[in-house]
């Protein structure tokens, strides 16, 4: 068995890990099967240095990359198109044990207002994305076997790390639960939000944020926050901060050469210092996670670079909450290559196609090999 087959075996192993990992929290269960360890053992036993080197030299056109979406992609009905595939219901049952509520019911039937709450949508997107990987493994197993890299947007990074074997499912979901609860609490402390801004080459994002903060000060807001929270693609940013600052930017969008602005369906000013109260609870949760080196390359939102050591994963996942998501930089790191070199197949696993749209704007050639795993349609009607 090669490492490709070992990596495909993750779908068999995680079910057992989830079932044994079902327990009461706040701490992850002490006896949980570690998917990362199972994959690592299989890899070590079956693949020597020569085989590993040969796998790394595989032509890019024969490889695949998985992208995991983040908060804001949630929609009522997600998961409906996954339930006919092996182990998906087990996955949601395990999630219920970790979370203490029926995530599948909320995902399928809403209401949307409840699903949109940070405390719910982060676990919902996390689980739906990994369930979508199960569907992809069933329909196109070679995609999983030949995966060489993964990246996730914000909370999607946790799903990417679970897929890559860096952490076990129940531990990863527990960390997401703590993260979501802490971010929900932080967002309720200050009226804040996130604004998607499509600009132009002459757009002045930094200057616009500065003037928005100055405007907030005239309203009596102390230490106002307004800053870039996500780099999506050239001339497109997400700006987070106090609601008054975001309202100012929308009202004065022409002044800063913004072509279009849109408020995002999130409850707070994420990836700014407004989320500082969430850092310590998440860091504590991550300390209890049995972190391993990822078996495929996973790129950090904080700097766009590939994780190289488990201790860096804990450190950067905690920092990510208060740091801008450098997604555009991540796309360049994943897809940068010499002219004429083939691009890998890319699959977005989870609700929505936002990451595919961003990829198209970052790298049109890479996007031509893009596909999406639908989580909404019934299996018999889906053509994925």
UniProtKB/TrEMBL annotation:
It catalyses: holo-[ACP] + malonyl-CoA = malonyl-[ACP] + CoA. Belongs to the type II malonyltransferase family. It comes from Panthera pardus (Leopard). One of its GO terms (molecular function) is [acyl-carrier-protein] S-malonyltransferase activity. Residues 67-380 form the Malonyl-CoA:ACP transacylase (MAT) domain. InterPro entries: Ac_transferase_dom_sf, Acyl_transferase_dom, Acyl_Trfase/lysoPLipase, Malonyl_transacylase_ACP-bd, Mitochondrial_malonyltrans. Pathway: Lipid metabolism; fatty acid biosynthesis. This is Malonyl-CoA-acyl carrier protein transacylase, mitochondrial. GO terms for cellular component: mitochondrion. SUPFAM superfamilies: FabD/lysophospholipase-like (SSF52151), Probable ACP-binding domain of malonyl-CoA ACP transacylase (SSF55048).
């Amino acid at each position: 068995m090669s490492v490709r087959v070992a990596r495909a075996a993750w779908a068999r192993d995680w079910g057992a890990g989830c079932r044994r990992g079902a327990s009461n929290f706040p701490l992850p269960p002490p006896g949980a099967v570690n998917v990362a360890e199972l994959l690592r053992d299989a890899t070590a036993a079956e693949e020597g240095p020569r085989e590993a080197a040969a796998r790394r030299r595989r032509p890019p056109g024969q490889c695949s990359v998985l992208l995991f979406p983040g908060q804001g992609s949630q929609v009522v009905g997600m998961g409906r198109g996954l339930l006919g595939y092996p182990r998906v219901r087990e996955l949601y049952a395990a999630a219920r044990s970790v979370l203490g509520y029926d995530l599948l019911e909320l995902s399928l039937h809403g209401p949307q207002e409840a699903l949109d709450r940070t405390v719910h949508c982060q676990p919902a997107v996390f689980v739906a994305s990994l369930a979508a990987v199960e569907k992809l493994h069933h329909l196109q197993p070679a995609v999983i076997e030949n995966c060489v890299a993964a990246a996730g947007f914000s909370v999607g990074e946790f799903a990417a790390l679970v897929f890559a074997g860096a952490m076990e499912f129940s531990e990863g979901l527990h960390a997401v639960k703590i993260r979501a609860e802490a971010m929900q609490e932080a967002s309720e402390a200050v009226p804040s939000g996130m604004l998607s801004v499509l600009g132009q080459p002459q757009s002045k994002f930094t200057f616009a944020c500065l003037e928005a903060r100055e405007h907030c000060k005239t309203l009596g807001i102390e230490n106002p926050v307004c800053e870039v929270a996500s780099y999506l693609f050239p001339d497109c940013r997400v700006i987070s901060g106090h609601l008054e600052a975001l309202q100012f930017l929308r009202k004065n969008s022409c002044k800063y050469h913004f072509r279009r602005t849109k408020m995002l369906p999130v409850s707070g000013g994420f990836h700014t210092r407004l989320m500082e109260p969430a850092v310590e609870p998440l860091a504590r949760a991550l300390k209890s996670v049995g972190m391993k080196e990822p078996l495929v390359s996973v790129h950090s939102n904080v700097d766009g670079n590939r994780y190289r050591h488990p201790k860096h994963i804990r450190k950067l996942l905690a920092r990510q909450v208060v740091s801008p998501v450098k997604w555009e930089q991540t796309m360049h790191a994943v897809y940068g290559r010499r002219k004429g070199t083939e691009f890998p197949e890319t699959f977005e696993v989870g609700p929505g196609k936002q990451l595919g749209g961003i990829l198209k704007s970052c790298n049109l050639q890479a996007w031509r090999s893009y596909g999406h795993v639908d989580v909404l349609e019934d299996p018999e009607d889906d053509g994925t």
